[in-house]
Amino acid sequence: MHRPSPLVAAILGGALLFPLAVSAQTPPLPDAPGKDVVVQNCAGCHDLNLISTQRKTPAEWEATVNRMIANGVTLDETQFDQVVAYLGKNLAKPAAGAPAGGAQASAPSKQVSAH
Questions:
Q1: Owning domain of residue 86
Q2: 92 DSSP β-pair partners
Q3: 35 falls within a domain
Q4: Contact at 8 Å (CB) between 59 and 95?
Q5: What confidence score (pLDDT) does residue 106 get?
Q6: In a domain, 97, yes or no
Q7: CATH number of the domain that 57 lies in?
Q8: Contact by Cβ (8 Å): 49, 79
């Protein structure tokens, strides 16, 4: 039987461990009210690592959730509010020109899908 050279074995071993190193560096979704609703409604289409690395203003998150509804996600009004609030608070970037205290501009109107 032919055995792979130590170099080949090291490369293959490293390639197998690389996904573990990458996933260990990805921040998990913060534990906060609304996380369960985000996981339940977003993880069907999105890897949670993708969501946890995004930073958007609350208005950008609301626009993103509205876009997902236009693409077929079904959220009632309560779920919509919970998802937008969770993402806007826990995965937020400061709004351009916003004071350090966090005063927010009025949010765009929301779309809510019918069941």
A1: 28-90
A2: 56
A3: yes
A4: yes
A5: 45
A6: no
A7: 1.10.760.10
A8: no
Number of domains in the chain: 1
pTM, entire model: 0.62
Chunked in runs of 10, what are the mean pLDDT values of the chain (115 residues)?
A: 61 54 65 96 92 94 97 96 97 71 47 55
Buried b (16+ CB within 10 A) or exposed e, 55-86: ebbbbbbbbbbbebbeeebebeeebbbbbbbb
d(CA 17, CA 45): 25
8 A C-beta contact, residue 47 and residue 73: no
Place of tokens 């534990």: 31
Residue that the structure tokens 């792979």 belong to? 4
Tokens coding 1: 């039987």
Run of H or E including 15 = helix 6-25
